[in-house]
Amino acid sequence: MVESAYWMTRRSLVGLMAAAALGVPAAVAFADDTMVVVHKDPNCGCCSSWVQHLRDAGFAVRVEEAADLKTVRARLGIPATLAACHTAEVAGYMLEGHVPAEAVRRLLSERPKAKGIAVPGMPIGSPGMEGGQPQSFTVVLFGPDGSRPFMRFIGKQSVG
């Protein structure tokens, strides 16, 4: 087990060095080694579009179809007030809803003391919900101490 952890660290370091030499942002290189496990309804098109958004951003994604997402959310500790369309796990954090890849990268880079991040509801223009006039929305950081704003977006564009 220790040897495996050593090789992952070495592999990540080599990847970051190669990315730096090529001028690729470290966040994109880091995403390549990070598996996102997505729990989604098998019949949901917007969930599939969000999965593609993450893949396009460089994340490895594994989809687990789940007809009863309420049970998945309860098991993972997602507050009912933050429930959205799909739930994901990445590096010990939970992602709920149409969270932009940029917010996931920041979460993984900063490693705040939290359970995860969420985009409650299904804001138009958020990743996977393209079409129409993009809405302003807040990515919420949540955990045992409650929740607070983490990032703001209009559609896929970060505004703070």
TrEMBL record:
Alphabetically ordered keywords of this record: Signal
Protein name, entry field: DUF411 domain-containing protein
Organism: Afipia massiliensis
InterPro entries the UniProt entry points to: DUF411, TAT_signal
Record's signal peptide: 1-31
Recorded superkingdom: Bacteria
Keyword Signal: yes
